[in-house]
């Protein structure tokens, strides 16, 4: 009886949490769907691929990767950061089925990377760099969506690079938009932003997702302006391909060219896509974990396997390469998602909208979707974040700002690389200052110097130790104490023993205390076990 009661209680608890999560996940999936739809189409257009390929990648990213991933908030789909690589690959191969084969091989390589636990590289991105990347993405969203909110849609929806394909850059595009704005787009985007900010505060109606209201109001306002001089143009609306019947739908799918599996060009493209897509996914995963209100930690190796499965599926069906995407994931998190059901459902919504309601979807103004991304961007790059990083100290604030600026003026991977370089500089600077402690005592005319080495003395400390030893005055007794050192790098040991060997020429007496000839790198797990046993 007690076991039955416990089982019933456990079942009731699961149902309670499922229902509680669904209240958050269903509205969030709608938000992600609305954001993802134009992004999928825009990225396909910029990549020189069929529009259906972008949509298919979004569907696979939601359903396949969403199901296989261990992340609860990450959303995958075609990424703007891969457009240059994809465009170049399609142009170089001049054969889309061969490109599909490359995407499949890239997915297989990602699975291998996950199985050999290469995902742990994601744990080495400094917090300041990840925070800077998020803030930069927020700024990019604001700057890139302003032209769309003003009704100037010259670049594709979702372009994240500073330099655009239309020969504009982020700032010149805004300047152009200010001179050629659309009254209807401004009204729609302004009303949309007001709804997004005010609607959740009205408890009586807050159960209905604000972005859904934004879309309904946006369509209504576009119909009000229709027929007037301020009417929205076709390029200011979503442009989902319309199919007529099942046969036309199935005809959109293509088969990869399996005979090209050994083609050197295909293999190089596959390796490039796998490496870039994996890095972007790991960066996105780390960033989303940072803004997860529950502070869950996503398994990185499992994510690589999930991404690999997604890319193999997308490549087999004719879709674009897929990564975990910060913009969609951020929109998902800000919309209040709790589990990966939101990402999965957004994939199904993309599929159903394409099959059954493309005409209605094509009535949605890009201005109201731009408003959703503007609000998301504002939440990512709030002023409080800059203040918080400033109060953490220069060693955190400088890499943070460097990452923000670098991502803003280049692209995601280059920007993070520059931020990492600045962060490593501060790491080296800190390590060089803390390898030892010393104390000087005087006995008559002779000085006694005791140097106490730190617990971990790495090769990064070699330069500062060498400088310190070279500056020791003549006729000094030096004691180098390694009692507390668990590990001393071989390069540092060589420096110490060389100094002892040559010190007599300066009248320096060197005494080594508890310094071994050789050290083994300590294993973290064994150290923890030993400390727990003690």
Structure, described:
With 534 residues, this protein is of the alpha/beta class. It is 63% helix and 7% strand. The chain has helices at residues 2-47, 51-68, 83-93, 96-115, 127-150, 170-179, 183-198, 210-225, 246-250, 264-291, 300-317, 326-334, 341-356, 358-361, 366-380, 383-391, 394-409, 412-433, 462-470, 490-502, 524-533, and strands at residues 76-77, 323-324, 436-443, 446-453, 456-457, 476-481, 487-488, 509-513. Strands 3-4-6-8 form a four-stranded mixed beta sheet, with no helix packed on it. Strands 1-2 form a two-stranded antiparallel sheet. A two-stranded parallel ribbon has the order 5-7. Strand 3 and strand 4 (446-453) form a beta hairpin. The longest helix has 46 residues, at 2-47. The two termini are 44 Å apart. The mean pLDDT is 86.
What is the typical, i.e. mean, pLDDT?
Answer: 86
Percent helix range: 55-70%
N-end to C-end Cα span: 44 Å
Low-confidence stretches: none
């Amino acid at each position: 009886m007690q076991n039955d009661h416990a089982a019933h209680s456990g079942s009731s608890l699961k149902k309670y949490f499922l229902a509680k999560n669904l209240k958050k996940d269903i509205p969030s999936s709608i938000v992600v769907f609305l954001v993802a739809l134009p992004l999928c189409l825009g990225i396909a257009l910029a990549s020189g691929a069929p529009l259906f390929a972008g949509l298919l990648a979004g569907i696979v990213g939601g359903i396949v990767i969403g199901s296989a991933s261990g992340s609860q908030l990450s959303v995958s789909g075609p990424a703007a950061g891969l457009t240059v690589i994809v465009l170049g690959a399609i142009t170089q191969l001049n054969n889309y089925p061969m490109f599909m084969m490359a995407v499949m091989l890239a997915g297989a390589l990602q699975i291998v990377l996950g199985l050999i636990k290469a995902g742990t590289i994601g744990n080495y991105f400094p917090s300041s760099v990840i925070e800077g990347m998020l803030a930069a993405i927020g700024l990019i969203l604001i700057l890139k969506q302003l032209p769309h909110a003003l009704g100037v849609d010259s670049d594709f929806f979702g372009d994240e690079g500073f330099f655009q394909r239309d020969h504009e850059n982020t700032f010149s595009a805004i300047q152009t938009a200010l001179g050629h704005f659309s009254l209807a787009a401004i009204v729609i985007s302004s009303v949309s932003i007001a709804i997004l900010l005010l609607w959740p505060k009205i408890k009586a109606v807050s159960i209905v997702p604000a972005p859904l209201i934004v879309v309904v109001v946006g369509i209504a306002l576009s119909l009000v302006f229709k027929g007037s001089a301020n009417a929205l143009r076709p390029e200011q609306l979503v442009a989902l391909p319309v199919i007529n019947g099942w046969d036309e739908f199935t005809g959109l799918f293509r088969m990869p060219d399996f005979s090209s599996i050994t083609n050197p060009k295909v293999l190089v493209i596959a390796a490039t896509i796998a490496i870039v897509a994996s890095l972007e996914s790991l960066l996105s995963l780390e960033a989303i974990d940072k803004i997860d209100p529950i502070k869950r930690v996503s398994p990185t190796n499992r994510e690589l396997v999930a991404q690999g499965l997604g890319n193999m599926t997308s490549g087999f069906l004719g879709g674009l390469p897929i990564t975990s995407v910060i913009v969609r994931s951020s929109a998902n998190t800000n919309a209040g998602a709790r589990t990966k059901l939101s990402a999965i459902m957004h994939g199904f919504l993309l599929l159903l909208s394409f099959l059954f309601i493309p005409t209605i979807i094509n009535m949605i103004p890009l201005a109201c979707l731009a408003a959703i991304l503007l609000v998301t961007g504002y939440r990512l790059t709030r002023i409080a974040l800059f203040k918080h990083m400033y109060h953490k100290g220069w060693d955190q604030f400088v890499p943070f700002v460097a990452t923000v600026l670098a991502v803003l003026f280049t692209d995601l991977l280059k920007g993070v690389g520059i931020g990492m370089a600045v962060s490593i500089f501060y790491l080296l600077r800190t390590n060089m200052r803390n390898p030892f402690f010393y104390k000087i005592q005087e006995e008559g005319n002779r000085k006694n110097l005791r140097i106490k080495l730190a617990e971990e003395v790495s090769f990064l400390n070699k330069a500062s130790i060498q400088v310190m030893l070279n500056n020791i005055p003549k006729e000094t007794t030096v004691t180098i104490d390694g009692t507390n050192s668990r590990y001393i790098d071989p390069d540092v040991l060589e420096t110490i023993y060389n100094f002892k060997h040559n010190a007599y020429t300066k009248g320096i007496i060197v005494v080594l205390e508890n310094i071994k000839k050789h050290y083994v790198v300590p294993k973290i797990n064994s150290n923890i076990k030993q400390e727990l046993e003690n």
